[in-house]
Each structure stands twice: as C-alpha cells, then as structure tokens.
C-alpha cells in the first residue's frame, strides 16, 4: 500500500527497516517483480551484499537501470553509454572519467563481458584510465560523485515523460558511512518520476546502529520510514492454518511424538 501511495507522488523514497528475518528483502523482491511487469515502470534493483566501495550500490542500480531500459526496448545500452560518457567528460572531466569507468566495470560484471569489450562497443577506449585510479578518485570525492550521479539519472530519464523509474536498494546497512551520505544526497534531489525503495537491517551492533542514525532522521524528512516488526504468535498461527489447515503447536507436538 505504501509503495502504491509513493508512486502517486512526483518523486520520493521509502525506507524499510527491521531486524534480520522480518521480510524486508522478500517485500522488496515482490515489489520489484510486480512493478517490473507494468509497461510504464522501469525497475532497477541492487543488493549491497558484496559492496566493495562507496560507489558500488549506486553503480549497481545504474547498470541495472540501463539494462532494463534496453530489455524493455526503451533505448539501446550502447547509445545510453555514449551519451553518458560525453556528458560526464563535458561537465566534470576527472570525476566524470572515474564515474564512467566504474559504471562500465559494473556493467561488465552484470553482463559477463570484459570491460575493454564494452569500451570497444561504445567506441571510446580513451576513457579507460585504470580501474584503481577511478575507485580512488570516487572514494575521495563522494559529494562530487553524488552530483554527477544525479546528472546521469536526470539525463537518462528526462526524455521519457510517460515512464516512472523505481529503484530498489537492499541491504544498505552494509556499505560504509560515506555511501550512507551519498544516499542522503541522492535521495534528497531525485529527478521527477524517480522513486527509491531502501532496505536497511537494524541490529543492536554499534556500527550498524550508527549508520542507521546517520540516515534515518533526514530520510524521514524527505521520505518515510516503515519498520517491519515481524509476525505475532496469533498471526503465525493464522498463516499456518491457511497453509496447512493445522495449528503450528499441533505439528510440533506430532513431530515430538
């Protein structure tokens, strides 16, 4: 219901929090599958399970967005990459080059293609300065990265006024504090018709709690947070009866006997 309400707005963000096993990932996966089937919605998703740098969550989302737009025959991937590469180099040569390399590297992993092959496909191997240099530059310039990332989202989506873009970012508690700050900057300035769903596991661990306190107050100003509390004993019994026709306790007793 909250996701449907979100998509009625101009743009926005929903933060889903809760302890492990409360159903955050299942909810986000179900939402992604449901809305991906609608012709006027492009869904891009990324799990931060193996984020290795500050830009990984956002590059993963962007790579999936470009692939989904090609899959829905909105625009070919190589045309998007050519336009993005030119825009980045025109607006911010150094950070732009780093962002483009990081994006192509992420696409290479997703598409199972060597990075140099993708550069050949977009006919611009001159943009290939070295992956490590690109990652170091991104790590030292998080706010510049956020600025250029928002420019990319705007450039990719602005020509399609009849489409909505839904981004699903799960396990956002795993990236470091710099990535959390980038998330806040991006979420506060999303382009029109762009929507963000974020899954964040809340635990008693000191670091995870600190990350949560970094983003929650501000995200509640620009968006909304929904905590998944899990099921009560009565609710578990209800769903158990629906699934099996028997009480959970009866099954446990039968197993013990």
Q: Helices and strands, in N-to-C order?
A: HEHEHHHHHHEHEHEHH
Helix/strand class = alpha/beta
Major beta sheet, strand line-up: 2-3-4-1-5
Mean pLDDT: 80
Main sheet: strands, sense, barrel? 5 strands, parallel
Low-confidence parts, pLDDT < 50 over ≥5 residues?
none
**Number of helical segments?**
12
Task: For this entry, give a set of tags.
alpha/beta; 5 strands; 59% helix
Q: Can you summarize this structure?
A:
The chain is of the alpha/beta class and 257 residues long.
What does this molecule look like?
This protein has 257 residues and is α/β, with parallel strands linked by helices. It is built from twelve helices and five strands. The protein has helices spanning 2-6, 24-36, 56-71, 77-91, 93-111, 115-121, 131-140, 142-157, 177-188, 206-222, 233-244, 248-256, and strands at 12-18, 41-47, 164-170, 194-201, 224-227. A five-stranded parallel beta sheet has the order 2-3-4-1-5, with helices on both faces. Helix 9 links the parallel strand 3 (164-170) and strand 4. Helix 8 (142-157) runs parallel beside helix 9 (177-188) and helix 9 packs parallel to helix 10 (206-222). The termini are far apart.
């Amino acid at each position: 219901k909250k996701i449907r309400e979100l998509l009625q707005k101009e743009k926005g963000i929903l933060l889903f929090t809760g302890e492990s096993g409360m159903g955050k990932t299942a909810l986000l996966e179900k939402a992604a599958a449901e809305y991906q089937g609608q012709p006027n919605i492009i869904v891009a998703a990324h799990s931060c399970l193996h984020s290795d740098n500050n830009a990984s969550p956002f590059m993963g989302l962007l790579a999936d967005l470009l692939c989904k737009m090609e899959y829905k025959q909105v625009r070919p991937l190589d045309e998007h990459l050519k336009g993005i590469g030119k825009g980045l180099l025109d607006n911010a040569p150094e950070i732009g080059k780093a962002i483009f390399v990081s994006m192509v590297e992420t696409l290479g992993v997703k598409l199972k293609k060597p990075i140099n092959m993708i550069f050949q496909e977009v006919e611009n191997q001159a943009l290939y300065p070295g992956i490590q240099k690109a990652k170091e530059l991104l790590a030292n310039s998080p706010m510049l990265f956020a600025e250029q990332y928002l420019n990319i989202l705007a450039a990719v989506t602005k020509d399609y006024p009849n489409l909505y873009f839904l981004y699903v970012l799960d396990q956002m508690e795993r990236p470091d504090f710099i990535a959390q700050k980038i998330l806040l900057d991006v979420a506060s300035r999303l382009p029109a018709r762009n929507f963000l769903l974020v899954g964040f596991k809340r635990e008693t661990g000191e670091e995870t709690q600190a990350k949560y306190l970094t983003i929650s107050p501000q995200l509640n100003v620009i968006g909304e947070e929904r905590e998944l509390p899990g099921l009560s004993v009565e609710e578990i019994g209800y769903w158990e009866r629906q699934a099996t026709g028997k009480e959970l306790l009866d099954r446990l007793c039968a197993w013990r006997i």
